[in-house]
Amino acid sequence: MKPLTQHRGRAIPLDRSNIDTDQIIPKQFLKRVERTGFGQFLFFDWRFTEDGSERPDFILNQPQYRQGTILLAGPNFGSGSSREHAPWALQDWGLAAVIAPSFADIFYNNCLKNGLLPIPLAESDVSRLMAEAVDPEGLWLTIDVTARTVTTDAGEVFSFPLDAYAQESLLQGLDDIGRTLAFAPEIDAYESRVNPRVNTQG
């Protein structure tokens, strides 16, 4: 994972509720074994017509949002199957965070384990941010993981919950395996004590 301490980006208003993981990354694109390459298939059925051309009315296809890095969405984002490919696709497209009133539990945890920040804010606050994001000048937000805040360029500040373990993992850029490997010297020392032959033979 890449460390995520602070991020400033343009907000993309996707004003839809109950967006499930099959809409985020359809099942026919889950054959890849790498974590990369899924961004091109993000929201595939919404982004493209049957002949493969872009739908100009879909938000991600509009020029002013193509470089956006913070997604605004409706309640219950990431429901459905537990596929880890969903946060992979969002990240690979270029997103650093998703802001919504609520998230499906498994999707929320999958995001944190992969370095994508899910930010739950009050539905009224998300609606206001969406209204500002459709302005031609756009809405730029600054996310501070240490302070657990989202700040608009106008100076409005929103606080969001984030447990200490997830916060530390994001700040350090460590997934669960990385955090375990940080204790490698202690693990090796323990193994040497309980099974000295492990190190002497290998």
Blueprint (SSEs and pairs):
Layout: E1 6-14, H1 21-24, H2 44-47, E2 70-73, H3 85-93, E3 97-100, H4 105-113, E4 117-120, H5 123-133, E5 140-144, E6 149-152, E7 157-159, H6 164-172, H7 176-181, H8 184-194, H9 197-201
Parallel strand pairs: 1-2, 2-3, 3-4
Antiparallel strand pairs: 1-5, 5-6, 6-7
Can you describe this structure?
With 202 residues, the chain is of the alpha/beta class. The chain is 34% helix and 16% strand. The protein is built from 9 helices and 7 strands; from the N terminus they run βααβαβαβαβββαααα. The protein has helices spanning 21-24, 44-47, 85-93, 105-113, 123-133, 164-172, 176-181, 184-194, 197-201, and strands at 6-14, 70-73, 97-100, 117-120, 140-144, 149-152, 157-159. The protein has a 7-stranded mixed β-sheet. The longest helix has 11 residues, at 123-133.
Q: Number of helix segments?
A: 9
Overall 3D shape:
globular
Strand order of the largest sheet: 4-3-2-1-5-6-7
How much helix is in the residues? Answer: 25-40%
Q: What is the CATH architecture term?
A: Alpha-Beta Barrel
Distance between the termini: 30 Å
Quick one: CATH superfamily?
A: Aconitase, domain 4
Give me the strand/helix succession. Answer: EHHEHEHEHEEEHHHH
Number of strands: 7
The CATH class assignment is Alpha Beta
Whole-number mean pLDDT: 91
Compute the gyration radius: what is it? 19 Å
Q: Biggest β-sheet, characterized?
A: 7 strands, mixed
> Would you identify the regions where 5 or more consecutive residues have pLDDT less than 50?
none
Strand content: 15-25%
Number of domains: 1
CATH topology: Aconitase, domain 4
- SS class: alpha/beta
Q: Classify the oligomer.
A: single chain
